[in-house]
Structures are given as structure tokens and as C-alpha cells.
């Protein structure tokens, strides 16, 4: 953007491929962005772009507290936060304006659902949505700090298509060529929604969408920037279909962030609109419970799953999330908190809360079972809900080895499934696989003589695509 402004690109006749620079400015400059969105009849949250602390205070009075402040042209929610009064906003604005010369003051939509779509468009106006994702945590927590599930689980068909059609309308209006990420705030009680932001680039969510669907986003975006149309790009996963096919998922993907806040003495463990996580994990299963418990074990090898015995119940921690909120939630469910009460405290959609309750209820069932009376059915259902052998062993007061042996006796083993981007409509040709207990047959043969390398980096995935 600076090179364009200073005339260097024109001077040396440099041609910028892909998304025009103007589109990047239009999406990052909050004032222009709001005007462009309003021009196509869509809505952004009531907001104002300001350049000084005094202007910020005046804007907040007009919009009404609580407000959210965030810097323009920034990554990872740098310099953003919520303010309930003038004093909080003054210190927030002072901090944010040291990162950027433009500050945006938004009406706070805390507690709304946060939904994202990844969209690709070529220079010939062909447009598809690659993946839609939903944050388990409500609005107010940065996407990079949220547990995210793909595809979205709580949207009605009507809401899904409403947001999808809007996403395509927006990417066309901005003239974006390549990949783009659009984030929405959706009112949980109606179909009212606001467009929070549009990233005309590969973002952290794009890395997740790419891995979750098996659709090679970075590869396709690079081809589109060269002016190649979508229908002529081969889908490298199936080898048969083109990149113009919208992926459909017959599995569930859960992303959980990895924090490392324990390394720092005076850092607050509260999470919010500014990103503190250092990496993330992604797990795949055939049910939400299975994928969720797998992901929790991947984040921290010392955790057995959605364990209600790690933390004690603390309502403040449920209201104001920390990096360990999920385990406080598990403890609250075990203590008998109702789903309605937990929704009131956390604003996490009740669908997810009922799924968490399923896991804890099964924990209680296992705890009432003696080690020598674990039946095939009990064990099979536990595995389908994502319980590990060690987790089951702790609940029934046995050992991991004994449970594993019992499982092998009952012939309860996982099946290997293949990610094919098109829900098995075409055969896939890649080695992109996952294990699940919610299945009956393997998707491919195992002739033997192969080596599998297992391992994880200290920060798990990071933001690679």
C-alpha cells in the first residue's frame, strides 16, 4: 500500500497480481469499508473511524457504551479491546493509536455468534465458498483465541445460505481475485447479522479451512492471481474434479488454540479480542464430541480429554474467559449446572453445551461402572464419544493397558477415513487420513511395509497453510 501511495510501483511499471491494491485499502480502511458495504445494502456494526483519543470518546458517546476499540491495518487483533466507560476507553484508545493512526470504535456485539466463510473468486467472476466455520466461543473473543468448528453446526439451512450469498456478493463488489475471508456477527435470537470484517488475503482461518477441507487454498489463490480461471485448475485431492467444486464435508473438524501463558509471570490469563495464542491444533472426527476430546488431548499431552476434575467451578471464569475455561465448564456440568444457566454465563450456543453435557454425563456413567463390569456396549459408546483408553481407565478405576486389552478382545478398533473434499462423490487420491470410532470400514487398503511418522511441534500447527 505504501509503495503504491509513494508512486514507486508506477515509476518502475510494476504490475500487482491478484487482488487489486485498492481492494486491500477498501477492506482494511474501516471508514471506506463501511461505506462500500452499505452501498450493496448490507450492514456493518454501528461504528466510527477516529484518529485521536478525544474523537474516540465523542464517537463512543454517540454509539453508546459498551464499545469495542480496534486499530485499522493490524493483524491478530493488536491493540483492541472492550470498554464499558470513558476511563477504560481512554487508556485503550491511547494504546491502540500507538499501533496505528486510525482507530475504529464499534458497537459491542458481545454474546452474538461469530461465523466465517472462506471464499475464492477468479478474474472471470467465478466464485465459490470453500468452507464455513463457526466459533464455539461467542463474539468478543478473537478467532485465533476461539475454539472453531467446521462446518458450522448451529446454523439453520436458511441462515447458512443467507450468509453464503452475502459472502459472494461482497467479494464481487470489492473485486477481490484469489482468496478472501469474511467474518459475521449473527444474532442468536433472529436472522439479523453484521459483517465484521473482510480479509482480502490468506489469514489464520484460511490455514484452518485449507486443512479442514483438503482444498489447497494457497495453491489455488496463487493460480488465480496469475489470471487462471477456476474451472481449469485441477483439484489436487480428487485429481478428477476442478477447483470450481465447493467442498462438502462428511466429518467434523475442531480447532483449539494453544496458549503458553504459564511461561510469563505477570501476564493475565484472560482471553479476548487481542490474540495471545501461539499455535493451534486441529482434530477430525465423525461426531463433535469425538473431535473435541481428541483436540483437547492434542493441545496438552497431560490432559486426558474433557476432564471435570482439572479445575474447580468459578463463575467469574465462565463469564470472563481464560485459557482454561473449558475445564471450568466441565467442572460446572459435573456439579449439576443446567445448560440454561451455563448459556447465561458463557453465551456459548446451547447446541455445544448439550454436546459437552453428553461427555460429562457419560463420565458419570463410567464412574458408576466397576472395572470388571465394563461391557462391549459401554466401551464402544465411550470410544464413539472420543474417550481415550487412559480416560476410561481413570473413570472406572482400572489401568490403560487393561482397557486397551479389553477393547481388543471386544474388537473395538478405529477405522481409517480419507478426506476427499467432495463427501465421497469421487474417489480421492491423496494420503489425507483420519481415525474415527464412528465408522465400520476403512477407506483404503493397508498392504503393510509402510512407515508412519508421528509428532508435533511445541506450538502444534502455527499458521502454516
UniProtKB/TrEMBL annotation:
PROSITE patterns membership: ATP_GRASP, CPSASE_2
Gene Ontology molecular function terms on file: aspartate carbamoyltransferase activity; ATP binding; carbamoyl-phosphate synthase (ammonia) activity; carbamoyl-phosphate synthase (glutamine-hydrolyzing) activity; dihydroorotase activity; metal ion binding
The species this protein was found in: Artace cribraria (dot-lined white moth)
Cellular component terms per the entry's GO annotation: cytosol
GO terms under biological process: 'de novo' pyrimidine nucleobase biosynthetic process; citrulline biosynthetic process; glutamine metabolic process; UTP biosynthetic process
Keyword ATP-binding: yes
Reaction equation(s) it catalyzes: hydrogencarbonate + NH4(+) + 2 ATP = carbamoyl phosphate + 2 ADP + phosphate + 2 H(+)
Pfam families, per the entry: CPSase_L_D2 (PF02786), CPSase_L_D3 (PF02787)
Main enzyme class: ligase
InterPro entries: ATP-grasp, CarbamoylP_synth_lsu_oligo_sf, CPAse_ATP-bd, CPSase_dom, CPSase_lsu_oligo
The protein, known as: carbamoyl-phosphate synthase (ammonia)
NCBIfam families membership: PRK05294.1
SMART domains tied to this protein: CPSase_L_D3
Enzyme Commission identifier(s): 6.3.4.16
Domain ATP-grasp: 34-226
Keyword set, alphabetical order: ATP-binding, Ligase, Nucleotide-binding, Repeat
Amino acid at each position: 500500500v505504501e509503495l503504491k501511495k509513494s508512486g514507486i510501483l508506477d515509476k518502475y511499471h510494476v504490475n500487482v497480481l491478484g487482488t487489486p491494491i485498492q481492494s486491500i485499502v477498501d477492506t482494511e480502511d474501516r471508514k471506506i469499508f463501511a461505506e462500500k458495504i452499505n452501498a450493496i445494502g448490507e450492514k456493518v456494526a454501528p461504528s466510527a473511524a477516529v484518529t485521536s483519543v478525544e474523537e474516540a470518546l465523542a464517537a463512543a458517546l454517540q454509539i453508546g457504551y459498551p464499545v469495542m476499540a480496534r486499530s485499522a491495518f493490524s493483524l491478530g487483533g493488536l491493540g483492541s479491546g472492550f470498554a464499558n466507560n470513558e476511563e477504560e476507553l481512554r487508556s485503550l484508545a491511547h494504546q491502540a493509536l500507538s499501533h496505528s493512526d486510525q482507530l475504529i470504535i464499534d458497537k459491542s456485539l458481545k454474546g452474538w455468534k461469530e461465523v466465517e466463510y472462506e471464499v475464492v473468486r477468479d478474474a472471470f467472476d467465478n466464485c465459490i465458498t470453500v468452507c464455513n466455520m463457526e466459533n464455539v466461543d461467542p463474539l468478543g473473543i478473537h478467532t485465533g483465541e476461539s475454539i472453531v468448528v467446521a462446518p458450522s453446526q448451529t446454523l439453520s439451512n436458511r441462515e447458512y445460505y443467507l450468509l453464503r450469498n452475502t459472502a459472494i456478493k461482497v467479494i464481487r463488489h470489492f473485486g477481490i481475485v484469489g482468496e478472501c475471508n469474511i467474518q459475521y456477527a449473527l444474532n442468536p435470537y433472529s436472522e439479523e447479522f453484521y459483517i465484521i470484517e473482510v480479509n482480502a488475503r490468506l489469514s489464520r482461518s484460511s490455514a484452518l479451512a485449507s486443512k479442514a477441507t483438503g482444498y489447497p487454498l494457497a495453491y489455488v489463490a496463487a493460480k488465480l492471481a496469475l489470471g487462471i480461471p477456476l474451472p481449469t485448475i485441477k483439484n489436487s485431492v480428487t485429481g478428477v474434479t476442478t477447483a470450481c467444486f465447493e467442498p462438502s464435508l462428511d466429518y467434523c473438524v475442531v480447532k483449539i488454540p494453544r496458549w503458553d501463558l504459564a511461561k510469563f509471570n505477570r501476564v493475565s490469563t484472560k482471553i479476548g479480542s487481542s490474540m495471545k495464542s501461539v499455535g493451534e491444533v486441529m482434530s477430525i472426527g465423525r461426531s463433535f464430541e469425538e473431535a473435541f476430546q481428541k483436540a483437547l488431548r492434542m493441545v496438552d499431552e497431560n490432559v486426558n480429554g474433557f476432564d471435570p476434575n482439572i479445575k474447580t467451578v468459578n463463575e467469574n471464569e465462565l463469564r470472563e474467559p481464560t485459557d482454561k475455561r473449558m475445564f471450568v465448564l466441565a467442572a460446572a456440568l459435573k456439579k449439576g449446572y443446567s445448560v440454561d444457566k451455563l448459556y447465561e454465563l458463557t453465551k456459548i450456543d446451547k447446541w455445544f453445551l448439550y454436546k459437552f453435557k453428553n461427555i460429562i454425563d457419560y463420565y458419570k456413567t463410567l464412574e458408576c461402572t466397576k472395572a470388571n463390569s465394563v461391557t462391549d456396549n459401554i466401551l464402544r459408546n465411550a470410544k464413539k464419544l472420543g474417550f481415550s483408553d487412559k480416560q476410561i481407565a481413570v473413570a472406572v478405576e482400572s489401568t490403560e493397558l487393561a482397557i486397551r486389552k479389553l477393547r481388543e478382545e471386544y474388537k473395538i478398533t478405529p477405522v481409517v477415513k480419507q478426506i476427499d473434499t467432495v463427501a465421497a462423490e469421487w474417489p480421492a487420491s491423496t494420503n489425507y487420513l483420519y481415525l474415527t470410532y464412528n465408522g465400520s470400514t476403512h477407506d483404503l487398503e493397508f498392504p503393510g511395509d509402510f512407515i508412519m511418522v508421528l509428532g508435533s511441534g511445541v506450538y502444534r500447527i502455527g499458521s502454516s497453510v
